[in-house]
Design goal:
This protein is of the alpha/beta class and 396 residues long. The protein folds into 2 domains: 252 residues, Spore Coat Polysaccharide Biosynthesis Protein SpsA, Chain A (Alpha-Beta Complex); 123 residues, 3-Layer(aba) Sandwich (Rossmann fold), CATH 3.40.50.2000. The protein is 33% helix and 19% strand. The strands form 3 sheets. A 7-stranded mixed β-sheet has the order 3-2-1-4-7-6-8. The protein has a 6-stranded parallel β-sheet with strand order 13-12-11-14-15-16, sandwiched between helices. Strand 11, helix 12 and strand 12 form a beta-alpha-beta unit.
Length: 396
């Protein structure tokens, strides 16, 4: 019987930051784990440092070097995908353990993995969570290495399929083509796919049932920031960005001592929300400067201009480009006041705000007069009046 729970991850030196964050989250919530890192270029010194730290919580890390050139002619359809994604196909050959939990590096583990490790695989090669589009998602897989050892032709078959340039999701496509529906389904809590819910926002023809799955998943254990919109970017429009930063900001000392996760932002006196299809937001910067203890959340369906991005110099501003529908609903619900200060309107957003009976504040030249309830209009130059009204609107 194995004396440790075994995890495998794959990364290159450019992905060390998310890899370290994932490792911090693992050992913060779990002890006695053995972590294999499949890589081609991560320095020995990094492994020596992490190895010393993990030994303090009865865990270890193993450097598993491969030749990355072996992946050169394999399909990688998205820019954010590294060819190292194919390294997980080598797990049955590289790692001499009966059962291995594979984890992508763009995850955080926010709870105990004991129950997951105890999952019986029997005659299944893989246990995974269904992908919102089709098949299963390969970012989290419990792998039956013992069974693979008896059928090594399966590994060869996976690589043969991976040469197909029409693979839409790289090695995930290969895994689904080889195993089809013959995989053991894991609970959604073990692969809570943030990027997937954002993707569904822009693809109305895809099954909306996945959004219900997200809503019905309470206390997810493995949060997976799937897709290209990563939480370590300058901005991101998905859910649970702050949680990733909480684990990232932990020192390794705090991690092994299991000190409390600290908020990434100071407590705010209130939240203002505005949704905009344009970067022309009347008097926005003046409001931000006059209300430094209040948070300004600004969202858009698309990427934001340099003009809007420049507002990030203010600590009380948060930007949500390429925002998901679920995140918009969350921002509306959490807001104290909606700022209707741009001249290009999104009726769907305004109706959502009105439905939740949130106060709306606007200036004369950009206002929607007599259209919504609880709508407050100020002269374009009455910054002081709006600032005082916003303060008075929120009861501390």
């Amino acid at each position: 019987m194995e004396d440790k729970n075994v995890i495998a991850m794959a990364a290159d030196v450019n992905y060390l930051r998310p890899l370290e964050t994932a490792i911090k989250s693992i050992i913060y919530n779990n002890s006695g784990v053995k972590i294999y890192i499949i890589n081609a270029d991560i320095p020995q010194e990094w492994f020596s440092h992490i190895r010393r730290i993990l030994s303090l919580v009865g865990s270890t890390i193993i450097d598993k070097k491969i030749n990355a050139n072996m992946f050169d002619d394999l399909a990688a359809p998205y820019d954010y995908l590294s060819y190292m994604t194919y390294a997980r196909l080598l797990i049955p050959q590289l790692i001499p353990e009966d059962k291995v939990l594979y984890l992508d590096s763009d995850i955080v583990v926010d709870g105990s993995l004991e129950k997951l490790f105890g999952t019986a695989l029997n005659d299944y090669f893989i246990a995974a969570v269904p992908d919102p589009i089709s098949g299963f998602n390969a970012g989290v897989m419990l792998i039956n290495n013992k069974l693979f050892g008896q059928h090594l032709n399966k590994v060869k078959e996976l690589f043969q399929v991976s040469h197909n340039s029409e693979n839409t999701q790289a090695d995930q496509t290969a895994l689904n083509l080889v195993f089809g529906s013959k995989y053991k389904r894991l609970d959604d809590m073990y692969n809570y796919m943030i990027g997937a819910e954002q993707y569904l926002t822009y693809n109305k023809d895809l099954p909306q049932a996945y959004l219900k799955r997200l809503k019905n998943t309470i206390n997810p254990v493995i949060i997976h920031y799937a897709g290209g919109d990563k939480p370590w970017g300058t901005t991101s429009g998905g859910l649970m960005r702050d949680l990733w930063w909480q684990y990232n900001n932990l020192s390794f000392e705090d991690t092994i001592l299991h000190r409390a996760l600290t908020p990434v932002r100071k407590q705010t006196k209130g939240e203002f929300f505005t949704f905009t299809p344009t970067d022309n937001l009347l008097n926005l910067e003046l409001l931000i400067r006059h209300l430094p203890k209040f948070t300004f959340n600004i969202a858009a369906w698309v990427d934001m201009s340099p003009k809007l991005n420049s507002f990030l110099e203010y600590p009380n501003v948060r930007l949500f480009p390429r925002v998901s529908g679920s995140k918009v609903q969350q921002l509306v619900q959490n807001s104290n006041v909606y700022l209707d200060i741009n001249d290009v309107k999104d009726d769907g957003i305004l109706n959502e705000v009105n439905k939740h009976k949130k106060p709306m504040f606007s200036f004369t030249s950009v206002s929607c007069t007599d259209k919504y309830n609880n709508y407050h209009i100020f002269a374009d130059n009455d910054i002081k009046g709006m600032v005082e009204a916003l303060k008075n609107m929120i009861v501390i």
